[in-house]
Write a structure and sequence with these properties.
globular; 2 domains; 364 residues; single chain; alpha/beta; D-Maltodextrin-Binding Protein, domain 2; 12 helices
């Protein structure tokens, strides 16, 4: 995808969800300038190449976020700094576990996730370098761990997508945990195999404890219809297949900003009263201790969480929330200040325990 300023974003062949073994070289394939975001997302990774080569080598960026968004932000970084970046894309826990296996030999310089529990897998092994204090200062404390191992870069809100034709406003659940009650049998959709729903479960675990979370998951095993992802859930709600489903906000907003074909019959319920259903998941960003280019890695962190990087996020079609206090989110979004967000310590979201509990419940 060609961008203004003479920079090209080209693809490295790494299948999303199946992390590739590190390789020292890759042949880029140039995408047409008119390529839509979906074309960029179909590429497995991206390299931003400046007109004049940077004085350092290329940063290797392990990416579990949406590829079109990260490619856009990385291109802005390269344009501003001249530092080249190569993306290697996969899923949150796949890449986190790969970094742990690679240890000090990992070729990764920087790691970004869709949801923060995978960041803690890497942090628990002491593989992150401390984030520069100036970078941490750009983001409210709630979006980063107190350890300073990594920093939040984007946020997404948990919502209940519902079809008003089949679910009256008076019948909406007061709490996310109510979905385990008998009256919800066959009426709610979830995507348990995805990192998004697993992050939501981690919030329930942090707020309600292990016993209550296990009971909730057992109820969902009985009640919920299983889907492959947030998009599939929203389409099912839209079609009247199910009255409601648990998703992240931006799937609805993105569809409404486009044709609205998959959300015309869908509205969003934002849970009140600091409920676990109001959980805001954070995309994490960290630099590896083993990076060959530690200064450049820290510059990437600073840019992506800084005003220029966050402005690109705000103006993009991703419709995720910005985390820099000085950059407002896309005006199409419901302001975070109007939401009832529970206080969850992102450093205590226990991904491995969540997997264990979901397996015990038969959801994985």
């Amino acid at each position: 995808m060609a961008l203004a300023g003479g920079f090209d974003v080209a693809a490295l062949t790494t299948a999303c969800g199946t992390p590739a073994a590190p390789s020292p070289t890759a042949v880029p394939t140039k995408a047409p300038a008119s390529a839509a975001p979906s074309a960029a997302a179909s590429a497995a990774a991206a390299v931003a190449t400046p007109v004049a080569a940077a004085s350092t080598g290329t940063l290797t960026f392990y990416n579990a976020q949406h590829e079109d968004l990260v490619a856009l932000m990385v291109a802005g970084f390269t344009k501003e700094t001249g530092i080249k970046v190569a993306l290697r894309s996969g899923k949150d826990f796949d890449l986190a576990n790969q970094i742990v296996q690679e240890g000090a030999s990992s070729p990764a310089d920087v790691f970004i996730t869709e949801n923060s529990p995978a960041m803690q897998v890497v942090a628990a092994k002491g593989l992150f370098a401390p984030v520069d204090k100036a970078t941490l200062a750009q983001v409210p404390a709630r979006f980063s761990p107190t350890t300073g191992d990594w920093v939040g870069v984007a946020a997404r809100v948990t919502v209940l997508a519902h079809n008003p034709k089949s679910l009256a406003a008076t019948a909406l659940p007061k709490s996310l945990v109510d979905l385990a009650n008998p009256e919800w049998q066959g009426k709610v959709g979830i995507a348990p195999a995805g990192a998004d729903f697993q992050a939501i479960v981690s919030a329930v675990l942090a707020l309600k404890g292990e016993a209550a979370t296990a009971a909730w998951l057992k109820g969902l095993k009985t009640n919920a219809k299983i889907y492959t992802g947030n998009g599939a859930i929203m389409r099912a709600v839209n079609a009247g297949e199910i009255p409601a489903g648990v998703i992240y906000h931006y799937y609805w907003y993105k569809d409404r900003a486009e044709s609205g074909a998959n959300s015309a019959n869908v509205e969003l319920h934002f849970f009140p009263n600091l409920d676990p259903g109001g959980f805001v998941s954070v995309s994490g960003l960290g630099a590896l201790k083993s990076s060959k280019y530690p200064k450049e890695a820290q510059r990437l962190l600073q840019y992506l969480t800084g005003k220029n990087g966050q402005q690109l996020l705000a103006e993009s079609t991703a419709l995720e929330y910005t985390v820099n206090s000085g950059v407002s989110a896309n005006p199409k979004l419901k302001p975070l200040s109007e939401l009832s967000i529970p206080d969850v310590d992102v450093a205590k979201l226990n991904g491995p325990k969540v997997i264990e509990l979901m397996q015990q419940a038969g959801l994985l």
